[in-house]
Amino acid sequence: MKAPDRYVVIGNPIAHSKSPDIHARFAAQTGQHLVYERLLAPLDGFADTVRNLIHQGAKGANVTVPFKLEAHALATTLTERAEAAGAVNTLAFAGGHILGDNTDGIGLVTDIVRNAGIALNGKRVLLLGAGGAARGVILPILHEHPSEIVIANRTVSKATELAAYFAKQGSVAASDFASLQGRFDVVINATSASLTDDVPPIPVTTIDNGTFAYDMMYAKAPTAFMRFASQRGAAVRDGLGMLVEQAAEAFHVWRNVRPETAAVYAELRANLTS
User: Fold this and answer.
1) CB within 8 Å of 170: residues ≥ 6 apart
2) Choosing a second label site near 18 at 20 to 30 A (CA), which of 108, 196, 265, 271?
3) Among 192, 227, 190, 231, which residue's Cα sits nearest to residue 208?
4) 135-148 confidence digits (pLDDT tens)
């Protein structure tokens, strides 16, 4: 029998990654003959790690912290969404070429629009943060035709740079947290504040009982941002679905098969321990 195609997730650290569990379920569900493993790369050895994978016949890799920018630089071809994101989380190896893609944004949008049932078309969207997590999702959100995206960040110059970069794609504005005006239909937290059980210092008027609030972080219990939004009457959701949906998109990039995500999401949710 032919050996299974090999895929890995590369990071440092990497032991915590749920990607092997997710892709094992996708493979079983779709009948794809593959193996998917965690791979710890030295902090100064990402490119060599990828070259060794290619030499060993691997078909592709996911890339996580802190190597997404290096993966972007290493790719010989970039998808439109990877170019816009400025970072790569999915590599595909074929014919001596390295395709770099970024599936984070479409993962977020799919989780919001399809799984949560929240349309982004015509909506006023607030994106909190102006780092890599925020940049990676702007183009897929713009493809849903919101009326406006406002990028808010503690350092407003970073938000302004992002807004200028995406200005030709749609209505994108920048602000600091304190200067935000009016309510928003959708508020997405792309900051790391939830890691320290904190909330970005936004005016309470940005969120009301008609707002959908999404935190890219996830945990067993609601994050600080989700608790803050819930107190304002908003519907809330964390980023576990984004994790599953970005993995499903990567699986589709590699195998041209789109797995079902609902059962995998439910199993991961049930097994969260912290």
Assistant:
1) 142, 145, 146, 149
2) 196
3) 231
4) 999 999 999 999 99
